[in-house]
Amino acid sequence: MKLPDFAPRLSRTHVVVLALALAGAAGLGVWMLRAQPLPIRTVDAVPPDAFVSVDVDVGGLRKSGALAALFGDRDEQTLTQVCGFDPVDRMTELVFTVPEGGTGEFGVAVQADLTQDELLRCADEIVKAHGGDPTPDITSHGPYAVITPRTTSSTSTKPARSLGFLRGGPILVGQRAWIHSMIDAIDAAREGRAAASEHVKLRARLATAVTPPPAFLVTATAVLERSVRERLKSEMLAEVGAGDDPGTAMMLGVLGMSSGVAGLYERGADVHAVVDLRCEEERECAQVERLIVKVRGEWAKLEPLRAFGLGPVLDHLEVDHHGTTLEVRASAPTADVVRWAKLLTTSKPAPSAAASAVPAPSGSAELPSQTLKVTVPEGVEPGQPFTVHIQSPRPGAPIVGVQTVTATIPSAAPAPSASALRR
Q1: Average model confidence (pLDDT) across the chain
Q2: How far from each other are the two terminal CA atoms of the chain, in whole angstroms?
Q3: What pLDDT score was predicted for residue 296?
């Protein structure tokens, strides 16, 4: 086709220059896009070498009405008085991460609507309330400010835990070295330098395990290095000998698991749990399946667990083994799960039947199945009543809550004693 006379004439040189200019502009655009930091997710704070991570969707739990069950009977009024606000109400996501080594150390990443000033004021008041010295040592690591008080309590001998703060990023809590590892993981993720860690892959795998994909309220992942598992196997075999015994074979199967992921989600009126385990070899998964089935059968016969309400869960627990993959599924009514969580998070230890180490007048509380020794509060006069709180007084009985009995020291008794009679 013939170009109009007014069309510009492009020489080969013009074409080459134009192509180079377009290529340069495209390259510059790609570079600028790559240079923009990626959005930070709370889960990005999990270092790739972490042993365990637990992700709690606090916002989702709040909407489901299960937040109180997760945190137990926390004293919102006290938190508000100390900090000037309730920190839990500002949270949307919480991630716990545990390093390898079994040192008891852990880190926490919290996505919360807090400024650095609010965070520091709240932390200072909490440290003061525990008798610590909140005087901060502020350093930087990557884009984060790392704040470490001199001491966190009057009795702790361990190094104080630090706070990591970055506007718009998750707030970090933990020992300074582990916080640095968490910051490095965040940095690598936001700059696009991080390959997907095994924890991220496990979460992605969990998302495909349920159709349609649910919003998981709690997600937990665990990755155990092969060298650690092999060492544990060697130590166990050195103690018990060959692994021909069925019990030993099952435990060797457990040590053959390389990773696992578990998720809790709510659907309808039920809470569902799905667990996906991976083994090095198929026979190891088969042994783990045998162990789960064995434990399920034994626990299903325990009357206290059935009285607690776990009977239907154990009866309908599903175990599915395919090659080196093992999947476990269970469900229970949401109301029951909330009740169990509250009982577990608010229960207090039952009173000891042994005499108190503090010298004090004591007597017997006559109960249907046992006698408990109780300590008389200081200042109680003979004939004056006092209250005794008893929880689950009969061994093996279902949890029935705290019961209250009234006791008095008879004024005519030759020696201080107390008879506690059940109301």
Answers
A1: 75
A2: 107
A3: 92
Residues 231 and 111 reside in one and the same domain: no
Q: How far apart are CA 230 and CA 255, in angstroms?
A: 8
pLDDT confidence bin for 158, thresholds 50/70/90: confident
Buried b (16+ CB within 10 A) or exposed e, 234-256: eeeeeeeeebeeeebbbbbbbbb
* Whether 334 and 391 share a structural domain: no
Q: What is the pLDDT of residues 26-63, one digit of tens each?
A: 443 433 334 455 677 888 899 988 999 999 998 888 88
- Residue where a domain stops, chosen among 346, 371, 395: 346
* 3-class DSSP state of 126: helix
Conformation bin of residue 26: beta by default, left when phi > 0, alpha when psi is -120 to 50 = alpha
- Are residues 176 and 108 located together in one domain of the fold? yes
Q: In what order do the strands lie in the sheet with 419-422?
A: 371-375, 362-366, 419-422, 402-408, 385-391
Measured between alpha carbons, how far is 57 from 60 in angstroms, rounded to an integer? 5
Maximum Cα–Cα distance across the chain: 128
pTM above 0.85, yes or no: no
In a domain, 67, yes or no: no
Last-in-domain residue among 190, 206, 225: 190
Distance from C-alpha of 366 to C-alpha of 360, rounded to nearest angstrom: 19
Q: What is the tens place of the pLDDT at every residue in 339-363? A: 887 777 665 444 443 433 344 444 4
220 plus 324 within the same structural domain: yes
Tell whether the model's pLDDT for residue 388 goes beyond 90.
Answer: no
Sign of CA dihedral 350, 354, 360, 363: positive
The range of the structural domain enclosing residue 104 comes to 73-190
d(CA 167, CA 115): 7
- What does the pLDDT read at residue 121? 86
Res 17 pLDDT > 60: no
Same domain, yes or no, for 132 and 214? Answer: no
